Structure formats: structure tokens, C-alpha cells
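ZP: hey, is the NAP complex queued? I don't see it on the tracker
AM: it wasn't, my bad. submitting now with these inputs:
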Amino acid sequence: MQHQQLYTTLNNGIQMPLLGLGVYDMYQQEAEQAVSWALETGYRLIDTAAMYNNETEIGNAIRQSLVQRSDIFVTTKVHNDDQGFDPTLRAFDKSLQNLRIDYIDLYLVHWPIRATRKETWLALEKLYSEGRVKAIGVANYLIPFLDELQTYNSIVPAVNQVELSPYLFDKDLVEVCQNRKIQLQAYTPLVRGLRMNDPKLLAIATQYSKTPAQIILRWAIQHGISSIPKSANLKRLQENFNIFDFHISPENMSFLDGFNENLRVVEDPMDLF
Ligand SMILES: NC(=O)c1ccc[n+]([C@@H]2O[C@H](COP(=O)([O-])OP(=O)(O)OC[C@H]3O[C@@H](n4cnc5c(N)ncnc54)[C@H](OP(=O)(O)O)[C@@H]3O)[C@@H](O)[C@H]2O)c1
């Protein structure tokens, strides 16, 4: 079945698909297979990181795909161990070599490491200014980190990738990013499966004849928030992409907004402030 992917325009005019495949915790053949399936299914955004140890396999799947490289949006991220100005420049080259693709669409600061995040960002600005990457952004930048960044940046991050789901819905961050023209991207949108049996979520899923995962991903998209669910399983990967044929009502969107319980499954970035 064909589905219509939706795109957002980043603050530098670049188009980015709203829904992507996250490839954390998949390795070797499994990672290559998952990306091949994803591209066949219609995914056009792949989110990897040097830290995930699978850039080589992700690149293989992209090169072997029948989908044109220009139609695929590839994100990768600076490893925490490689932060700092010169190390970041070298890390970028290393990621390009591992991926073996001509260019990277989006390069992110993976975590706001206290001692090095400023120099790391300045290195990303250099890479962007030299035309070596289509867009640059950050990850795990809650409001205090974004405010600090504003004291020295020349380029506004195109994307901020943070942990976000109906169960962790930081409305202030959503508003700040919208006001500053930073595209929010939700990682761990499926809360690693932890809330799939929540009766409130199941009730909405039943109403639309959709699965809990599909409701969450659709909710994010209707908020204009990009999301990058991970699956290495063909059926679930297809399920997560099958969200472009229905619409959640405003009443149910408000209901989902009220699910927030500040539930984090990944480290709280504020520990790094
Ligand atoms: N920037 C950062 O610091 C950061 C941190 C964490 C994650 N991320 C990115 O965000 C991506 C997504 O986050 P995540 O992988 O941590 O968690 P997630 O996408 O919320 O959940 C993935 C888990 O849910 C399962 N799953 C997938 N689809 C499902 C469905 N339809 N129904 C039920 N279970 C389903 C997956 O298992 P199967 O594979 O078996 O389907 C996997 O165990 C990562 O892959 C990574 O790219 C970024």
C-alpha cells in the first residue's frame, strides 16, 4: 500500500520528511535489512549516530536502494567522545567515510556536553558555512541549553531532537522551538513500547481502528513534530508508517496532550546543565 509522506520546511529552506526511521540498537545485517525495508515501505528519513555503531550498514542499505539518494534524508550525530572544535570536524569526516555517501543532510550535536558543547556547535557552523552539510542542529537541548546557545550562535539550529511523546510533552519547549523556528523532532516517541497497553491510548486507537503506536505518531505529526520511531521488524516498521490516511480530531488531540506524566526513558539532559 502506498502512503503519502509529509514534509516540513526547515529554517534554511531544506525539506525534511516528518516521519523517519530511528536506527538505535540495531547492528550489522539487522540494521541493513531494516533500512532496506524502510526505504521500500516509503520512509525517506533515516536517523543514525556515530554512537550507534551502524553507520556503515546504514550507508550500505542507502547505496543499494532503488530510491535516489537525493530523495533520502540522512541524519547523523557527533559522538560525545568526539566533541570539541577540531575533533568534531574529524568526526564529521569519519561519519561520511563510514556511511560512504556523498553528503549528510543533517548533522546534530548528540548531547549538550558541558565542557565542549559550545566548540562543537561552532564546528557545526563551520561545516554548514562551507556547504559540507545541508543542515545542522542539536539534540537534547531543553530550554536552558537553547538559551545558552543563543549567546554565541550565528546560525539557528534547524532541528532540535529531544525525547518527546504524549507521556513526556513539554509544551514550553514546543512553543520556544516554534517561536525560534527550530523544528522539533521526537525521539523515543513510542516510549520503547512501555505505554502500548495504556487504556486511555487503547480507547483512542479503537476509535480510529489504528494501533497505539499509530495514534502516537499521528499525534506528533498533527502537532508539526517530526518523529523517528525505531523498529527492526518489518510488520511494525510498516505499521509505524501507516499513519497518513486518518486524522485525529481536535478533541482527541487535546485528550492526548493531557497524557503527560513527564515520563523519561532516556537520561534527563538537565543533568548536563
Ligand atoms: N538524540 C538522542 O539522544 C536519542 C536518544 C534515543 C533515541 N534516539 C533516536 O530515536 C529513535 C527512536 O527511539 P528508541 O529506539 O529509543 O525508542 P522507540 O522508537 O520509542 O521504541 C522502539 C521500541 O519499540 C518497539 N516498537 C517499534 N514499533 C512498535 C510498534 N508499532 N508497537 C510496539 N512496539 C514497537 C521496537 O521494537 P522492534 O524493533 O522489535 O519493533 C523497540 O523495542 C532511536 O532509534 C534513535 O534514532 C535519539
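AM: back. The first helix runs from residue 28 to 41.
ZP: great, adding it to the tracker
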